[in-house]
UniProtKB/TrEMBL annotation:
This is Rrf2 family transcriptional regulator. One of its GO terms (molecular function) is DNA-binding transcription factor activity. It comes from the Bacteria. Coiled coil: none annotated. Pfam families: Rrf2.
């Protein structure tokens, strides 16, 4: 499974936000974590769109978690950051990602689908609280 820097930055940002006692702005986060602000802002917007973060406006605004860290799954963070569910292989049970378009006749497809299900279940059961 290829996770990009977007997932890494999302997890680092969520860890920092979870420790804060007040909302944290994108610029402060970018500086603290040495992440390009424009890239981080897109990630934070995606996390907010998925209901993981809340954006508060105003002089004392910034981002806060919408839920307890034990209620935010790693899978939901990955999906928000990457824009799609994680896939272990290019050819998974998702027929649109099969490079040969042969998901129904591929002999290893059942194994890959089972493996992907186990990964999904693991990531759905893993929370930010488990890794922070």
């Amino acid at each position: 499974m290829l996770l990009t820097r977007a997932t890494e930055y999302a997890l680092l940002s969520l860890e920092t936000i979870s420790r804060a006692d007040k909302p944290i702005g994108a610029e402060q986060l970018a500086n603290e974590l040495s992440i390009p602000k424009s890239f981080l802002a897109k990630i934070l917007q995606s996390l907010a769109k998925q209901g993981i973060l809340e954006s508060r406006k105003g002089a004392h605004g910034g981002f806060v978690l919408t839920k307890n860290i034990h209620d935010i799954t790693v899978n939901s963070v990955i999906i928000a950051a990457e824009g799609k569910p994680p896939a272990v292989f290019d050819c998974t049970s998702y027929s649109e990602t099969c490079p040969n378009g042969a998901i129904g006749s591929c002999v290893i497809s059942p194994f890959l689908a089972n493996f992907q299900t186990k990964i999904n279940d693991f990531l759905d059961g893993l929370t930010l609280g488990d890794i922070l």
